[in-house]
Amino acid sequence: MELMEKLEVLADAAKYDAACTSSGLHRGNRGGIGTTTMAGCCHSFSADGRCVTLLKVLLTNRCVYDCQYCVNRRSNDVRRAAFTPRELCELTMGFYRRNYIEGLFLSSAVWGSPDDTTERMIETLRLLREEYNFWGYIHAKAIPGADPLLTRRLGLLADRLSVNIELPSEASLRLLAPDKEKCAILRPMAQIRDGIQVSRQEVARYRHAPRFAPAGQSTQMIIGATPESDRHILTLTQGLYDKYRLKRVFYSAYLPVSDSGLLPARQGFQPPLLREHRLYQADWLLRFYHYRAEELLDEAHPDLSPLVDPKCSWALNHMEFFPVEVNTAEYEALLRVPGVGVTSARRILTARRCGSLTFEGLKRLGVVLKRAQYFLTCSGRRMEGLRVREDGVLRHLVALERPMLAQEAPEQLTLFDNTG
User: Fold this and answer.
1) Helical (H) or strand (E) element with 315
2) pLDDT of residue 411
3) What region does 243 belong to: left with phi over 0, alpha with psi -120 to 50, or beta?
4) Which ranges of 127-181 would DSSP assign to H, the alpha helix?
5) DSSP strand pairing (103-107 vs 137-141)
6) Pairing relation of β-strands 324-325 and 376-377?
7) Distance CA 179, CA 177 (A)
């Protein structure tokens, strides 16, 4: 198979992996080719509209596992290909010199054994770093079940590592991927967490100490293929952040790639893109807005609302918390106001030292008053002409998201319109 044919096969197979981010890392050039900055990598877009910042490929799509939800499962009749480490290095350098990419996202199916696959990945990254002198951003997938020493070597060559948790529950994993075990996935997560912590301590003492996965680790889970609720998913996400100190959890709406009776039927199946979007919004609240998973959802409400974003939904269910007085409220209280973000909350704290804030001033500070006007006051006063009724607030907030709802969940919008 020609090199470009391999690229076509293996880049297409990699598009199902969403756990791909910009670098979030600053490292100077050591006299070689490429660099990485806190601003991240340049962006391009794949055919299905997903944002791609790196050369995103699999080392191979030949796999010994038969995971029902995976397009690369061994029982699936697809074209198979594999790069040699040298071929992938030449592609990466060629694309970099043409300014197509700023780095590499390298994953792989398990070919032979986890150790064999990891060794091929290590050789690829070793060549890039040592022979091609490439110091751009590299994100590599750690292979569950590989020897811990191999995972460490991989982390010393890559900027970020990730281990996909695959499915939200152990029961679903056992049903759809019987060759995999939850403990085999969590074990390398713990190793990477500990390796990062030790590496930071060593770098603090010895400036030139080798750095292990300096941009942290991430993971991905598939949603919509199994019956777990949003509450289950967010509780798992919260636990992963707390225990393994992940940088990101990625959510991938299930795309039907199998006719297995254990998965949703292909006929008429719509990928849950709106649900994926809501989970990302909720994830943002967990990471930056000091929310906890148990605050957003409970047993009575196990799924996120398709009508409004999770922050607005929480606010509408806790109207006793509002209105918030912007001239006296604590930072944490400001973060709870829909339309007030992390940056605008900090600006409010700074600006009000010089005098009382007005609604016009809030607008200049970046507050989205279309949302925030219902939940805050300035010097004890509501926005002029504003009438607050809970059903009216909901209608207005839904109207702000109407374009997206009309595209992704028209049945929900129709239901809302019919019920008033």
Assistant:
1) helix 310-317
2) 45
3) alpha
4) 148-157, 170-176
5) parallel
6) parallel
7) 5
Task: Write out the E strands in 248-388.
Answer: 248-253, 324-325, 376-377
Q: Nearest-5° angle of CA 232, CA 48, CA 41?
A: 85
What percentage of the chain exceeds 90 in pLDDT?
A: 68
Task: Please state which CATH class domain 3-258 belongs to.
Answer: alpha beta
Domain segments of the chain: what residues?
3-258, 310-419
What the block records as the tokens of 134 is: 């490439």
Residue 181 DSSP SS3: coil
pLDDT in tens, 87-132: 999 999 998 898 888 889 999 999 999 999 999 999 999 999 999 9
The residue with tokens 């390796």 is 195
Residue 60 DSSP SS3: strand
In sign, the C-alpha dihedral spanning 254, 255, 258, 261 is positive
Query: Cβ(142)–Cβ(152) under 8 Å?
Result: no
- Give tens-digit pLDDT for 51-73: 556 888 999 999 999 999 999 99
Which residue's structure tokens are 């598009």?
A: 15
Q: Is-contact 41 58, C-beta < 8 A?
A: no
- Phi/psi of residue 413, nearest 5 degrees: -65, -40
Q: What share of the chain is helix, strand, coil (3-state, %, to 5)?
A: 45, 10, 45
Work out the number of other CB atoms within 10 angstroms of the CB of residue 205. Answer: 8
Q: How far apart are CA 128 and CA 24, in angstroms?
A: 20
Q: Does 412 score more than 50 pLDDT?
A: no
- Among candidates 164, 6, 188, 5, which has minimal Cα distance to 85? 6
CB atoms within 10 A of CB 270: 12
Question: What residue has token string 């500990």?
Answer: 194
- The closest alpha carbon to 290, from 232, 330, 233, belongs to 330
Cite the beta strand spans of 310-354 per DSSP E. Answer: 324-325
Beta carbons of 16 and 252 less than 8 angstroms apart: yes
What values do phi and psi take at 168, rounded to 5?
Answer: -70, -15
Judged by average pLDDT, the poorest of 245-249, 264-268, 310-314 is 264-268
The pLDDT confidence band at residue 25, using thresholds 50, 70 and 90, is low
Phi then psi dihedrals of residue 58, to 5 deg? -95, 145
